[in-house]
Design goal:
The chain has helices at 35-38, 45-53, 77-87, 104-107, 125-132, 136-149, 171-178, 192-199, 211-227, 248-251, 292-296, 305-310, and strands spanning 5-7, 14-19, 62-67, 91-96, 115-119, 154-160, 182-187, 231-235, 238-239, 254-257, 262-264, 277-280, 283-286, 317-319, 322-323, 326-327, 333-336. The protein contains twelve helices and 17 strands. Bound molecules: iron/sulfur cluster (2 copies).
Length: 339
């Protein structure tokens, strides 16, 4: 079955995107980490445990994703993972650029980590390294090999932009060769450095992929990869005018936690101090209005309000006030199970 299934938002599961530090060894061109908004500190093990405790009640239904920066730079990552498993989180994923510092793989067991999730943004060294930095392609492939040979499951995330979409079709054979279990195609969001690049207006580098090209290529490549037995997930991005729009901020349970204590419900809000929750003295509290939650309530013909505010170049209008299509919530995904 190669028909994509829209992964509907569910209030019955929670996703916790926990940035345990913002430090990183790489300087990717599209990095969304914004130290001014997210902090520059690494959280202590004690603080991480305290913040995890705020979500412990529903832990069995909670997917924990540990992120950075580069989370393997955190010297206590293995202890964080073990504590998360003991807390009973439904799944634990560690996102990494592949460098796997502090001998991470030797300090955790395959039953403690559901997935190591690697980021690669090109099927060739040349393209990937032009985005993520010299040496990052080889380091990522070596990290994947080591991870899989030690019995862990591995995912791969490919962030599609105008500078690497031409290599997406080449990813299928590479994923198969590497033994990847899940493939995530991501759309570049205009956040962090990518937002800056776009705003300085390098005409030669419009990072976002036009709608026609996205619709022609992404579902087709996803189907091809899934046929090789690799479950493939990609964002829906565009909705026809008659398709139902939902804002995950209202109907789903996602938390994006940063080391400065800010907790967002929407990733597109992360460049602005409009987080709706905040850890204060290790207690998760609602922030004062105005905040992102006020934006979630707005009903506009273009679909996602934040998209219209931060990346309106995604939209096209038949006439003023009448968009040709809607932009879906950036968290709405299509999934094609590997067969
Ligand atoms: S590996 Fe991730 S956190 Fe590090 S620079 Fe690249 S995108 Fe940013
Ligand atoms: S991306 Fe748009 S639709 Fe999704 S949570 Fe944010 S504001 Fe809501």
């Amino acid at each position: 079955m190669t028909t994509p299934k829209t992964v509907a938002f569910s209030k019955h599961s929670t996703n916790l995107f926990f940035h345990i530090l913002t430090q990183c060894n790489l300087k990717c061109r599209h990095c969304y980490i914004n130290p001014q908004q997210h902090g520059q500190n690494a959280l202590s093990l004690a603080t991480i445990k305290a913040w995890m405790a705020a979500f412990a009640e529903n832990s069995a239904k909670t997917n924990l994703i540990l992120l950075g920066g580069e989370p393997t730079l955190h010297p206590d990552l293995s202890l964080i993972v073990k504590h998360a498993r003991n807390t009973g989180f439904g799944s634990i994923t560690v996102d990494t650029n592949g460098y796997l510092f502090h001998d991470t793989l030797a300090k955790v067991e395959p039953q403690e980590v559901d997935y190591f999730s690697f980021s690669l943004d090109g099927a060739t060294r040349k393209t990937n390294d032009s985005i993520r930095g010299d040496g990052s392609f080889d380091a990522c492939l070596a990290g994947i090999e080591k991870t899989i040979s030690r019995g862990f499951a591995a995912s791969l995330i490919y962030t599609v932009s105008s500078v690497n979409i031409h290599e997406l079709e080449k990813m299928g054979p590479l994923l198969k060769e590497l033994g990847i279990h899940r493939f995530f195609i991501q759309v570049i969001g205009l956040r962090g450095k990518a937002a800056h690049q776009q705003s300085v207006g390098a005409v030669s580098e419009r990072l976002q992929v036009p709608r026609a090209q996205w619709l022609e290529m992404i579902p087709r490549v996803a189907r091809e990869v899934a046929k090789q037995g690799i479950t493939t997930i990609y964002p829906k991005v565009f909705l026809n005018l008659d398709e139902h729009f939902e804002c995950a901020g209202l109907v789903a349970d996602n938390y994006f936690i940063f080391p400065n204590g800010r907790v967002y419900r929407c990733p597109l809000c992360e460049d602005f101090p409009i987080h709706s929750l905040q850890f204060r003295e290790n207690v998760l509290e609602k922030t004062a209005r105005f905040n992102e939650a006020d934006l979630f309530q707005l009903n506009i013909p273009e679909g996602c309000v934040m998209n219209k505010l931060v990346q309106p170049q995604n939209l096209k209008y038949a006439c003023p006030g009448k968009p040709e299509y809607k932009i879906a919530c950036c968290l709405l995904k299509e999934e094609i199970r590997g067969q």
